[in-house]
Amino acid sequence: MMGDKLSNPAMEKKILSKVIEQAERVANHLGHRPVLMEVCGTHTVALSRSGLRDRLRAVIELRSGPGCPVCVTAVEDLDRMIALSQLPKVMIVTFGDMVRVPGSMSSLEKERARGAEVRVIYSPLEAIELAKAYPDREIILIGVGFETTAPLIGICIKDAYQYHLTNFSILSLHKRVQPALQNLLEDLEFSVDGLILPGHVCAIEGCQAYNFIAKDYEIPAVVTGFESLDMMGSIFILLEMLEKRAPQVINGYTRVVKEEGNIKAQRMIKTCFNKGGAIWRGLGFISDSGLSIKEKYSDYDAGRKFSVKMSQTQIPKGCCCGDLMKGKMMPQQCPLLGTHCTPTNPVGPCMVSSEGPCGAYYLYEHYNRK
Amino acid sequence: MKQQNDDVILLAHGDGGALTSELIDNLFQKYFTSDFIRSQTDAAIFKANSKRLALTTDSFVVNPLFFPGGDIGKLAVCGTVNDLAVSGAHPVYLAASFIIEEGFERTMLEKVVSSMAASCNEAGVEIVAGDTKVVERDHLDKLFITTTGVGWVSPEIDMGYHRILPGDLIVVNGNLGEHGIAVMGQRHGFDFDNQIISDCAPLNIIIKNLLQQCSGGVKLMRDLTRGGFATATKEIAMSSGRDVWLKEDHMPIAPVVQGAARMLGLDPLYLANEGKFLMIVDPKEADTILEILHHDSLGVNAQIVGEVKIGNGNVYLETMLGGTKFLDLMTGSPLPRIC
User: Fold this and answer.
1) pTM of the entire structure?
2) Domains of chain B, with CATH numbers?
3) Is some CB atom of chain B closer than 8 A to the CB atom of A53?
4) Inter-chain contact A16–B260, Cβ cutoff 8 Å?
C-alpha cells in the first residue's frame, strides 16, 4: 500500500551521511549548529519516530513550530468546548486528541467520565451521520485544524445545509498557518536559520503562498513531505541554501504540492468561512489567522447558536507550551516535562496531542528522564 | 462548570496502558493483596493436590461485535485461552458469563455463541460453566462476555522474569497490529480493500508444540493484546530490571497495516493483537525455536526482533536510520473497547 516505495533503508543511510556532512560544513560557516524549525506537528512526530532528530542532533538543532492544531488551541477555547459539553442534550463530537487536553479546570475526557456525551471520530462526516441518527440531540462538532481540515468541515456545513439539519453545529476554531508564520517571523527574538514547511497545508494553499518567507525575511524554506527521504531531502536543500546564502522557498514535495495549491479546496474554504482574528496559545491574537463560519451558514455556528458562561481562564502553572510553539525553547528545557507533565497526567496540550512536541519527546527521545 | 475532581474512572483506565497499571497498583492491590495479583502475570499458577494449575479471567467489550477475522465470541475464547497458554499452561476448561442488553437480537447472540463453540473446538477446550444476565435497554451496549479459564502446567515449565538474562533474544510469532486496525476500520467505516483482518486465534497449540520441543529455551511469554507489542515489552523490561534493545527493520509489520496506521496517526507497535505473543528466549535455542514456529501457520512470520541487555527497565528501538528512540507504556489510547 502507501509509503512502501519511499522506504529504502540503505539509500536512506547514505543520504543521511550526506546531510550530516553538509550540516557540518554549514555549521562551520555560520559559527553555530544550523537551527531549523519544523513548522508542522506531523513533522515533529515523524522526526522523532524515525530517529532522524536523534541522528542529526550533533549537527542540526531541530525546533518545533506552531503547526500542531491541538497545541495552539487557546485555553479559553478549550474551556468553551467543556462548557458546551455541559449543556443539556448536547453531544460533543471531536477528533481524539482534543479529549484529553486540560482546560482551566477540566478536560472533555473528565467531563465524559462525569456524564457529558463526548464522541471521538476520525472523519468529520461521521458527525453528520450522528446528527441524522440522534435527532433529539444537538451534535456539536469541534472544528480544530488548519487549512487541511477546513475543507472537510466545509463539506459538513454544506451537507447540513442540504439536509436542513437543525441539530448540528460546529465550533470553528480553525486556524491559518501563513499569518502565524508571519507573526513569528516579525518577532525580534525569533532566530531560526531555515523553515521546514508543512506539506499537507501547502498542498491546499500552494507553495507560492509562502514565497514571502524568503522575499521579506531572507530565510530559506522548503515544502516537505513526511517520509524520512522527504525530510532528509528538504533538510539538505535548506543547508545548501544556507551555505550559498541564497534563501528561496522551494517545493520539496512536488508529488503532492502544486505551486497554486488545491483550487477546489481553497474554493470550499472561501465558500464556507471568513478570515478573522484568532487567539493562538503562546502566540496570542493574530489578525486574519482564524476561519469563522460565514453568515449564510450561521445556523451551523455553535459559537452563535449557544452562549455559555465561562469563568476566568487559567493557564496551568509553569506550562511552557506557548513558548514551545514559538520555537523559543525545546521540550527538554521545560521544567515540568517528565516530572509534573507526563502522558498520563498532562499539563499542556503539547504533551497530549499525537502531533505535540512534548509527547513526541517524552515517548521517543533520548533525553535524560527525571 | 463542575469543580475539578480527578476521582472518576476515565476510559483510559481500561486501555491496558499506564493508567490501567496505576489503577491496579494503587487501588486493586490495596485490597487484593495476594502475591499472585502482585506478580501481575497473565494467569495465576498455583498448586492443587500436587498438580500445578493456572487460572485466569478476562472480559470482552469489543465494539463492533463483528469485525473482519472475528467477533466477540471468538475473542472471548481466544483471549482467555491465550492468557493461559502464554503462562505455560495447557488450557482445559472455560466458564463464560454473558451480560446482554434487552432487545439484543437472538440470531446475533446465536452467531456469537456458535462462534465460541467453533473456537473452543479449534483450541481443544470446553465451556463447562456459565451465567446469563440481561439488563435494561441502554444500560449496556449490546453484549459483554466474561470468560474464565483453567489449565494445567507441566512440572518442567519454569518461566518468569527471574530467568531473563542479558543476551537473551526477543522473538514474536508474526505480523503486528492487525487486530487493532481491523476493529478500528470496521468501527469507523474505513475500507482497506479487505486486506486487513484480525489475527484473532487460539495460540495454545503452537505454544504447546514449542514447549514440548524446547521448553528450557523459552524463558517468558506474553500475549500482545491491549497496549500492543511496545507496552508488553516495556512491562517486561521494568519487571526484570533489564533493558531491551529492538530493531525497527526486524519488526514484522505488513505494509498494508503500516500504511493504514500511518494514515490514522497510529503506531503499529502500540496496536492490539489477538493472535500474537512474544517470547524471551535463550540465544542458544533461538534458531530451533524459530524453526518450530515457522512450521506452524500461526508462526510463519516469526522473527527475532531484539535483545535483552544490562540496564534498568528501558526499551530502545533502533530505527532504520540508526537513530534510537524510547518505547514506553501506552497512554491515551485512541482505541477504547478493542477487545
Assistant:
1) 0.83
2) 41-153 (3.30.1330.10), 161-327 (3.90.650.10)
3) yes
4) no
